[in-house]
Amino acid sequence: MSKYKICLLPGDGIGPEIMEQAIEVAKASVGSEAELEFTTALLGGVAIDTTGKPLPDETVAACKAADGVLLGAVGGPKWDNVDRSIRPESGLLGIRKALGLFSNLRPAVLFPELAPASCLRADIVAAGIDLLVVRELTGGIYFGEPRGDKTIDGEPASFNTMVYKQSEVRRVARVAFEAAQKRGKRLCSVDKANVLDVSRLWRETVIEVSKDYPDVTLEHMYVDNAAMQLIRDPSQFDVVVTSNLFGDILSDESAAITGSIGMLPSASLGEGGIGLFEPIHGSAPDIAGQDKANPLAMILSVAMLFRHSLNLVAPADRIEAAVRKVLADGYRTGDIMPRENAEGCKMVGCKEMGRLVLENL
Ligand code: NAD
Question: Among 49, 80, 212, 224, which one carries the catalytic annotation?
């Protein structure tokens, strides 16, 4: 039987509550197919309180020794006034850097039962939303040099550099092609190759990499068109791959059209398959400790960990099917409870939602 080490970083706010549910689901979903060994480490505000640092060295070591990392959420008003360099969020950036996580995978799935939560017209969402945005995470204009301020024509000016090495494009393209192979086998590469030199290299490189994935159909789209197509007809997309800046915007847009922040997981992957898996939402301090949090994004993060880092595809499928069943049966946490026409829906708390998923595995 395969054995996997999973490092848990529950973090702050609702992090520990949703993590508790996710661990039970993880254990039950693998059954006797694999053995899971959990270690827990400190990150964020709880790490500041305990050690004075948002990312203790022991946490980095524990993550590096694991096959995959599950993160709840970090931050909260308690740490809003601590020095910027030791803010909980800097622990998050630090762990991403320490693990060399260069690609971010953000699925945007609209569960049919939650369609009224989408901001799109009913006839558009009727076709379904089930796409995955793969964003390059450590390059491009957010990190490019040179950057800074200077004087142009006697007035203040500022500049950044959008730069990609071919190897950086190649590795994120590979992640996207491999993700497409595990889904609908269609990949849309988003760029601005009609204007930007860096996008021309991006496009040429993605085409070159595509030769290794003949089973995946590749198309290209300019970023302005992609932003429009996402709201006109999101059902046309399977996997989207794009650079850091474009991916930042498109992944938030695709999450927004599904309408429910408590439902969406994400993955950040590095070399050698090590990955960090987390819900896209924050620590929700307004509802922490009240058994009101929706644990489904955290539970679906476990499914992503199984699929992308541990190759436990059947348990991942089982978790996703159980979540769908619980929603189909009408169970809702407060964040996904319809404001109108709620007949047939039953409001539950975090623990009960976790228990229902377990029951349906
Ligand atoms: P948030 O995502 O924590 O909360 C926004 C709103 O959504 C709140 O009303 C909250 O109650 C609700 N919500 C979020 N997740 C929910 C869930 N699972 N179930 C039910 N309701 C949920 O964003 P925020 O309020 O802007 O940030 C709060 C703290 O979280 C801040 O300190 C912020 O820096 C931090 N944060 C952390 C991460 C992370 O750890 N990856 C991401 C975003 C924000």
Answer: 224
